[in-house]
Design goal:
Elements: E1 2-12, E2 15-27, E3 30-35, E4 45-46, E5 50-54, E6 56-61, H1 77-88, H2 93-109, E7 112-117, H3 122-132, E8 135-138, E9 141-142, H4 149-163, E10 170-172, E11 174-176, H5 184-197, E12 201-205, H6 209-219, H7 223-229, E13 237-241, H8 247-256, E14 259-262, H9 264-269, H10 278-283, E15 287-290, H11 303-318, H12 325-332, H13 334-340, E16 355-359, H14 373-380, E17 386-391, E18 394-398, H15 399-416
Parallel strand pairs: 1-4, 1-5, 6-7, 7-8, 8-10, 9-11, 11-12, 12-13, 13-14, 14-15
Antiparallel strand pairs: 1-2, 2-3, 5-16, 16-17, 17-18
Length: 418
């Protein structure tokens, strides 16, 4: 029982509701009541001085790449990828485990309750996520320049056999790096596996001008058109970046009920330019989510920063204030859980109990009022304001109890992967 919470931010019928001085009761991983609740025999936590928000979903990242944080910062995507792949070809599961753990620690202490990952050896990352209690959607990655697609398929089938139905926290998915790093045969293989195994597909699409030029040169159409021609734009599809997408491709995405993810900080850092059409996509009813991308191209996994950057980049691009804090907050919470297919991102009876408590005594959140609490969360807060995180009804992070231990573990990992 979270007692006497100063603010609770939730979504009811698509509308943001800000509740004052209420209790939140949690049992068996679910929220069972919100309001002024009498004694019901639950363990009680004093929530006074805190705001409670739904768990945050990092909808696109590459967790093991924390080991490459700051390795090669000042380059555009093509050169940057070449340098990353030079190192990644040599990585072994033991090193990937260290990078994943470092990223998971960073996400836990900054309020992320779930993440969608794209990397190799996902079983390693999944096991670490389970150990820390974080939700994770992930699977092997098709990228022909690094891995044999037949081997990736075999890993995927084994991964699904191991985790599907065996955990409430791990969700198997299919990862395809992009249309320009895999063959047509690999794309068709991924499509068929998605249909056979009923799995979503995550893929980078229309990230750079170079990608658009290469796909248009090789196939005569733009990237989303090409993927659609192969049956890879559907309600199972999650398209990442879309910085160079055409208006007719937006119609394809909308008709297919595909999902999209914006990673503003990484796009700016890698100078991919273009423009993610957030307002158009939302107006067309497309599910828009937010992700940090990897810790080698962001270089932070703090989703509070990402919410702010999403709004600022859109305003800079549009020259107006059509994108607001509420849009970024919805993308990071409610929409993230919809992408995962989970009744979460809300603090109502029956919602999954993935919750984040923010310490309202933080100087950067002053003054705090009903009329500015959302603004403070999106524009002023950062991950260090998180005092507690709960996933599936279990407290996975309590700052007073866990911070020193997690910080020391992160420092130790950092020393091992120098």
């Amino acid at each position: 029982m979270l007692r006497n919470c100063d603010f609770v931010l939730t979504w009811i019928n698509e509308e943001l509701r800000i509740l004052r001085k209420v209790d939140v009761a949690v049992e068996n991983g679910l929220i069972v009541n919100v309001g002024n609740i009498g004694s019901v025999g639950l363990e009680e936590i004093n929530c006074s001085g805190h705001a409670v928000i739904p768990g945050i979903v990092n909808a696109h990242t590459h967790t093991p790449m924390s080991l490459l944080r700051g390795f090669f910062d000042d380059a555009e995507l093509k050169l940057w990828l070449d340098r990353m792949w030079t190192v990644e070809r040599e990585l072994v599961p033991e090193v990937i485990a260290l990078g994943s753990e470092l990223s998971i620690i960073e996400m836990i202490i900054s309020g992320t309750a779930a993440f969608i990952d794209m990397y190799h050896h996902p079983d390693v990352t999944a096991d670490i996520a389970l150990r820390y209690g974080l939700r994770a959607a992930l699977g092997p990655t098709f990228i022909d320049t690094l891995r044999d697609p037949a081997q990736v398929e075999n890993e995927l089938r084994n991964f699904v056999s191991r985790y599907r139905g065996g955990s409430r926290l791990v969700i198997p998915i299919i990862n395809v790096h992009s249309a320009y790093t895999v063959s047509k045969d690999t794309l068709l293989r991924a499509r068929d596996l998605s249909n056979e195994l009923d799995l979503p597909i995550q893929i980078h699409a229309s990230e750079t001008r170079d990608e658009v030029y290469r796909v248009k040169r090789d196939y005569g159409v733009f990237p989303v058109e090409y993927l659609n021609s192969l049956g890879l734009v559907s309600s199972r599809s999650q398209l990442i970046h879309l910085g160079w997408v055409t208006n007719w491709e937006l119609n394809i995405i909308t008709r297919a009920n595909a999902r999209v993810t914006h990673a503003p900080t990484s796009n700016m850092k890698l100078a991919t330019a273009g423009h993610f059409p957030m307002r158009e996509l939302m107006d067309m009813g497309v599910l828009v989510t937010l992700g940090t991308d990897g810790p080698a191209s962001n270089n932070s996994l703090d989703m509070f920063r990402e919410m702010k950057m999403a709004v600022l980049l859109q305003r800079h691009s549009y020259w107006d204030v059509g994108i607001k804090a509420i849009h970024a907050f919805k993308a990071a919470t409610l929409n993230g859980y919809r992408l995962l297919g989970i009744n979460g991102g809300c603090i109502n009876k029956g919602c999954i109990a993935d919750l984040v408590l923010l310490d309202l005594s933080s100087p950067r959140l002053q003054p705090v009022r009903y009329d500015n609490i959302l603004s403070n969360i999106v524009y002023s807060a950062d991950g260090s304001d998180v005092s507690m995180s709960m996933v599936n009804g279990r407290i996975i992070y309590d700052r007073d109890r866990d911070y020193e231990l997690l910080r020391n573990r992160a420092v130790k990992i950092g020393g091992e992967i120098k």
